[in-house]
Queue: 2 jobs
Job 1
Amino acid sequence: MNLFDNIMMGFGVALSAQNLLFCFIGTLYGTLIGVLPGIGPVVGVAILIPVTFGLNATTAIITMAGVYYGAMYGGSTTSILINVPGESASVVTCLDGYEMAKKGRAAPALGMAALASFIAGTLAVILLTFIAPPLANVALSFGPPEYFALAFMGLTLVTSLAGDSMVKGLMSGIFGLIVACVGVDAVSGEERFTFGFLSLLDGAGFISVAVGLFAVSEVLCNLEASMEQVFIKAKFSLRSLFPNLQDWKDSLAPILRCSFMAFFLGNLPGAGATIASFLGYAMEKKLSKHPEKFGTGVIQGVAAPEAANNAAAGGSMVPLLALGIPSSGTSAVLLGALMVHGLKPGPLLFQTSPEFVWGLIASMYIANVMLLILNLPLVGFWASLLRVPYKILMPIIVTISAVGVFTTDNNIFDMWIMFVFGIIGYLMRKLKFPAAPVVLALVLGPMVERTLRQSLTISHGDISIFFTRPISAVLIGIALISLCAPLLRGVMEWRKKVVEIS
Amino acid sequence: MRRADQITGILMLVFSLAVMEGARRMPPSGTFGPGAGFLPFWLGVAMAALSIILLVNATREPALAGGRAPFPTGWKLLPIVETIGGLAAFILLLETLGFLLSIALLTAFLLRVVEREGWLTTLTVSVANAGALYTIFKVMLGVSLPKNTFGF
């Protein structure tokens, strides 16, 4: 089946009434999640997993992918209007977006955010269509050592790029891997770290952990500060939303550059939408003729990160579908969702379930169109939602999280896990430990262990197997370099100082 | 933060040693490759090494005069403790009180006690929230939710 046939088949699947409906529900819910501060795409997708049990796998994943993109679109609304990012990938949009709003240009800022997201998202899906299948083909020749190396690299990149302190990022990642060991060991049947709790035999449950670490801890953190929102009033007539010609002249090149950069960044296991948005902003600032204007309310400052975060979200679907390796917290949860629905992510997915893969890819095109429509005319509606005070939202978020977690297995114990990890998450935030590596490691953990043990069994305990096979050696090399980068930087600075002194 | 990092380093070191000890007790690696305790043991080692690095880095940093403590103190800690307590009580009482009552009570508790909202807001939002969640999860999605002895 050639590419064209595959795409047609995909649209055949995606354009079914049920899939269209659920794509719409997903994008709507995702935009809502993005708009509401205090709840992000990780939690939004995680809570949806048990809810979608009744649906078939394709529809379920289409819905959840829609939520992912929707959150990328919706997050910019709060950034621009109240200087509060709806989720982490929209933090950078606050910088220029809110400044534009203060100058009375909130409407074009919102419009440009939606349009940049649309262009970037569509470009990303087009690139995904061309890159994912050949990558999956290459990966078919991967053996356990290559998979271990890939997962190892993914985890290392995420933990070393997350947050300010690499040590803390690594500790979060290793903590996640330790939590992943809880339960019955697949190979030997041995109970590990279950402390006699029957409910822990299946592991800690990544949904409960994710919701605890992200939703509950966020609520606890927000209780400290008073969440007073200063709301910028703006008129949202449809015409005012469209950026003018000068805006387009300023933004088009940044959008295109950031889309390509972010897409390929999203391909790397380990780099996600948030990092991409920061890099996009930084890159455009460096390339601009007037870098000093960034931060005062220039439209490229909105267009660049918004394009970047959507392109990266699309790009992160490449390793997810082709290799079975997630790029970020949200795609880790998506990976978990795929497994829960009985799909085995990885290169074989293209062979065993082509209707699912191509249906999903086709629905991403559709989702981008739906989101453009949802975010342009309806922006006034989303903005009015922001008037709901956080004080009212907070208990709703807590109760939804608790119920959502409960529905995974109808087991009260899952809520206790959410509770414990909520407290752990709060402590982690206060002590500046990043939370995303924990979820990533939790989802990748079983695969990491399985491939490690398989590789060592093949090599009879010889670790050099990872270094003698070329692909695995390269991947592990990249991982080790990223770990040593701060050390190298430190050495170079020290040498500079020595040169200056002498 | 420096003091907090030192304490965290020590606590995580203890945690890693516990993990390593737990892993050591698992059956040794057999003929079919590394055993159940292999990965946990080495994860414990890695965590121990990182904890020591954290501890050393924190100790070597010059103590900043007037450095901010990461945790809120005194009465600012109260809403957090109340919320944690409320959530624990909710989980404990869910099967006794049933879904509707528990959700309503938790919402009311969070609004009234933690956030000091007025009675009218508390009542309307609690009832609305419990009703909405019940409708979405029980009625629309068909999830089975805990009931109390009175049947709701």
Job 2
Amino acid sequence: MTATTVELAEASGEDWLVRTRLRWVLLGAGLMAGALAGLAPYLSSREIPVSDYADKTGIVIAAHVAVGMSFVLVGILAWSLRPENRVGVLMTAVGLAYFMTDLGWISTPATFVVADEWRGVFYGFLFWLLLAFPSGRLASRADRIFVVVFFVYLALIRPFPSTAFYDPELEGPFDAPGNPLLVRGDPELNATVDGWLSAVDAALIVTLFVLVVRHWRRAGRYARRALTPVFAVACVGVAVALVGVLIGLKSQVSLLNWGVQLTLLLLPVGFLVGLIRSRLARASVADLVVRLQTAHDPEPIRTALARALGDPALEVGYWLPASGTFVDADGGVLEVPPAKPERAATVVRGAEEPVAVLIHDTALAEEPELVDAVAATARLALENQRLHTELRAQLDEVRASRARIVAAGDAERRRLERDLHDGAQQRLLALGLALQLARAELPEGTASADELLADAEQELQEALHELRELARGIHPAILTDGGLAPALRTLAERAPIPVSVRATDRRLPPAVETASYFIVSEALANVVKHARASRASVAVTADGNQVVVEVEDDGVGGADVARGSGLRGLQDRVHALGGRLLVKSKPGTGTSVRAELPCA
Amino acid sequence: MLIADDHASFRRLARRLLEAAGYSVVGEASDGASTLAAVTELRPDVVLLDVLLPDASGFAVADRIATEPEHPVVLLTSSRTATDYGAALDGRLFLAKSELTPDRIEAALAEVA
């Protein structure tokens, strides 16, 4: 669970020049060492020893040169491909160290001892390389300690005890120039000390094996793609070396020696294949550039990024400054850093503020260069999409705000109708009853007063009627109590022309019922006022998640939303609910008003 | 007769009107619960029942009364008109409060006599 930020660094031109020159120098040194290793046995005054594991000396020498040169050449190549990665340098160092043993062909005591006793430095660089591949860095403290301890052991501990008791004149090769570090020639003691140190060798190799396995287990998916070919070869090599140490390399086991040589020869190939596989992942960035050219919507962009990063479950969140959150294409807020431990977040930053976040497999944390390259490539598309997302969020907010305003208006209408019903209407009704009682209690011979009271009752009835109509116009009680169908039937019954009603009996959300009612009410009012129709029909159907309201008449047509404030008001109400209003009204063909309302 | 309405002024004036017309008003109730209790206790012949009570719909109270053995006649009233209730009034006696006169009450009750 990590959140990282993409920051692109550029290597300076001066660094690049220095590195290039250094590569050429090392290549020259490697070629020279390889040539010397191939020719020295034939040019040296020393006798070429009979090989332990091959009858033909030339083949042995060729295999030896091939192993060293393969490390040097592949190392230089890797360094060129990934200049910022130490893997290439380490491989080159392994190759050059491998040729140290060839110093033995120079017939001086010093070179003989160095070649014989410090040739193990080659293994120091090799093990360092194994633990540092593919990032080039020793990731854990244990790795770093191991490499330091191993180099100290190879440089200071491993050579001296055995060298002190090793006399070439007693143990051969008998044409050796002599051991300047000899204390006392004692083959038996030398063999004993060598046996102890072989046990230390074995312990160190076992430790290396444990570290390698741990390295593999901790590696992400992408790192494993690079590690697989190397570790496959290395595991075989380590196992072979371990067996070799345990049974003694000096024994005549030609097959085992060939196995070691073959492993060493294949190891650079494994590194090269690993780097190429890593390189292939980086190549997906180029593919991403092409794909982004035609990706203008969130999903194609997400798909293109997911493909480039090799993570089908990739999520893309866009930064909304107003809320300070990352949201997906549907407006859902993304948690950063992600709650799931197997997901990590990489924030893509613009000049001043975040642009987007990529929620990806934590394995990609092992490939920061790939993620950085993908993020940098997609930044423009992501910024563009972020603006779209921000706009969509604002539109959604405006739409929701309109819906809330309409809902609040409807609620206020219901409250007003109820207040009229409970307040003014009740008082007028009580007044009516009081007038009735007053008339009943008038004494005989007061016709004038009776007439006045009758007039007052009549006025009161009209006031009540008007108040009732007003309340009904504000919000029909039957709509709340009985639903849309009875409310529409009541509306139709009060219309001055025949109106057929076909409406669903389903109770719909209040906002939809109210909108549907007022659509029909306004449409029928227009029919009566303008259409000169002989009949009209109302149909309300609820199908799936949509309610369709249709009002048709056989009048003169010619209605226009743009000109009629009533129809425009209906259109606003329908739009506020996320629906649409369609009006067909050609002159002479009647009018059809159709509203489509979403209904969850 | 039992008058069930949440407006005290209406109950008071309706009682006077009904008594002046010769009806015997045995009690008054201001909500659904007290109406049902009064029906059981006072055994009226007719209940003048407001459609909109504070704790219940008059329709629901009328349906509860109808389940009682030897239940009284229920005459629903409202400040709204029959138009505002549509089919909900089917099979029920209804009189708008604005039309509440002894003659109309008599005519309505005559329908079930």
